[in-house]
Design a protein that fits this description.
Oligomer: single chain
Bound molecules: manganese (II) ion
Distance between the termini: 42 Å
Strand content: 35-45%
Number of strands: 13
Radius of gyration: 15 Å
Length: 137
């Protein structure tokens, strides 16, 4: 890992793959892991209705909401509304999803690490409309 400033102009915004996300979602890699760090930092922008599939992280994940209004659900738990300044702590190997509210965008930083085998995320099935539209707590 060498000391430097990664300029905003060095990264290109990517459209998130539609087999892992629902709706239009944009990803900007803020920091890509460099040995010995295993930390990846991604800024993710969900358009209204956009969300991840169900998934789990081998070493957990931290989300920090930057703007908009979002939704988050752990498997078996309520749909929670998340707002700018909120930090969501997701334990290892816990099924969950996150995304925008139906009528608002949401942008968060996603911080995650890989395990000893290099695994970070296990992707699962899309979030059903029924699960997504359940009124948030
Ligand atoms: Mn996640």
């Amino acid at each position: 890992m060498k000391p430097r400033i990664v300029r905003a102009s060095e990264t290109k915004t990517k459209i998130a793959p539609d087999d892992l996300f629902v709706g239009q979602v944009l990803q900007d890699q803020v920091f890509v892991p460099e040995d010995p760090s295993r930390l990846r930092v991604t800024r993710v922008t969900f358009t209204p209705g956009g969300r991840t599939n169900w998934h789990a992280h081998a070493v957990g994940q931290i989300l920090y909401v930057l703007s908009g209004v979002g939704r988050y659900q752990m498997d078996g738990g309520p749909v929670e509304e998340i707002r700018p300044g909120d930090t969501v702590v997701i334990p290892p190997n816990t099924r969950h999803w996150h995304g925008a509210a139906p009528d608002q965008m949401m942008c968060h930083l996603a911080l995650s690490e890989s395990d000893d085998q290099g695994n970070a995320t296990d992707w699962l099935e899309p979030v059903s409309e029924g699960d997504y539209t359940t009124a948030p707590n």
